């Protein structure tokens, strides 16, 4: 297989159903999701090396598959009438994972600084790249029809990375570092 094709030398690339400029919002959006996927792969590798996080590694590998699905769904030149790979189920499953990670970490009332363990630090990078990807998906959705389940998933995914980063620190016995000038922004939920 030859990796280079020379078909993009003029600044265009192929999407499903046509060709567009390489700086097209569609290409920028799924390219940002691809960047996120690379950081998720790094997070999985670091978590596997640091140990005690087999479930987290399995979750991250599933997320990588779903990020490819998101990119695929966003790559249609005309998404009308297409069958998408993403539906509501992956975002719902992320909510379950988020709840589990939250319960595995100490209560938090203030903003925290990204970092702690290496796994946590990389998961915070994933969170911030995910937020950028979400902004690109929102822009794309304002300009053309997209699979809105992708937007829901990417929105939920950034919350997942925050919760997973905190539980990774807890699993490794590394405390989160609070932002010292933060007010109490996370309130404890009152019991009904």
TrEMBL record:
Residue ranges of coiled coil: none
Domain Cobalamin adenosyltransferase-like: 3-167
GO molecular function: ATP binding; corrinoid adenosyltransferase activity
EC assignment: 2.5.1.17
A Pfam family: Cob_adeno_trans
SUPFAM superfamilies, A to Z: Cobalamin adenosyltransferase-like
Catalysed transformations (reactions): 2 cob(II)yrinate a,c diamide + reduced [electron-transfer flavoprotein] + 2 ATP = 2 adenosylcob(III)yrinate a,c-diamide + 2 triphosphate + oxidized [electron-transfer flavoprotein] + 3 H(+); 2 cob(II)alamin + reduced [electron-transfer flavoprotein] + 2 ATP = 2 adenosylcob(III)alamin + 2 triphosphate + oxidized [electron-transfer flavoprotein] + 3 H(+)
Biochemical pathway: Cofactor biosynthesis; adenosylcobalamin biosynthesis; adenosylcobalamin from cob(II)yrinate a,c-diamide: step 2/7
Xref: InterPro entries: CblAdoTrfase-like, CblAdoTrfase-like_sf, PduO-typ
BP-aspect Gene Ontology terms: cobalamin biosynthetic process
Keywords: ATP-binding, Cobalamin biosynthesis, Nucleotide-binding, Transferase
Entries under Gene3D superfamilies matching the protein: Cobalamin adenosyltransferase-like
NCBIfam families assigned to the protein according to its UniProt record, in alphabetical order: PduO_Nterm
Family affiliation: Belongs to the Cob(I)alamin adenosyltransferase family.
Subunit organization: Homotrimer.
Protein's UniProt name: Corrinoid adenosyltransferase
Organism: Paenibacillus methanolicus
